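ENCODED BACKBONE
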Amino acid sequence: RAMEKLRVDGPVGAVDVKVGELTLGDKAKVSNNVRYVSSSVLNRSMRATVAGEVIKNDITTSSTDTKADGRVLMVSLLVLLFASLVLYLVARTKIELGVVISQEKPFMKALWGMGVVIFAPIAIAFLLVSLLGSLIGITLLLGYILLITISILFASAVAGGFLQKFIMPNMTFSVVWVFIGGVILHMVLLVPYIGSLIYLTVLFIAVGVLAQSLYLFLRRQ
């Protein structure tokens, strides 16, 4: 791993380093070559002397690291897809009902979800610092974490529901659309900016549907 910064301020035989930023100060005297691997250019004082050549190589990402990152992304996608499919199979009726609800005024559902994601942690934080409300705050915090976790899995079904509605509206929603929705939803994350916006919108809709359903359930009790 490359060090962040290196400054040479004295006589040395040669310099051969991998560094974020290399500086040759006023008193630097290099009797041989300066060879360095860095993403930035050499900071060289006018008084610094180099007897040999200055050779710079850019930092490159190794193919091993790239493959490792690709494997991590693939495993993460497979885990999320598997969990989404399990959730659908375990609670099929409720998931399908949630998909139908998500398509009714989706913009309002997204606003609901955004409000829950943003303001719920603030309310929980106030309760946690309060002596009397700390127990309620801990309970709500655990509930909030569970809500977000289920929403991430439910988002695959929401995405699949919208795809099914626009591509094959006459086809019955099934586990296939959960799989397709999950794959496409996570693939759009590779698209800069707009991909994240699409993902967050679908996630907010999922949160909004679950939050509204929970609110109506508690209200009936």
Notes: Residues 151 and 210 are 7 Å apart (CA to CA). The chain has two domains: 3-57, 63-220.
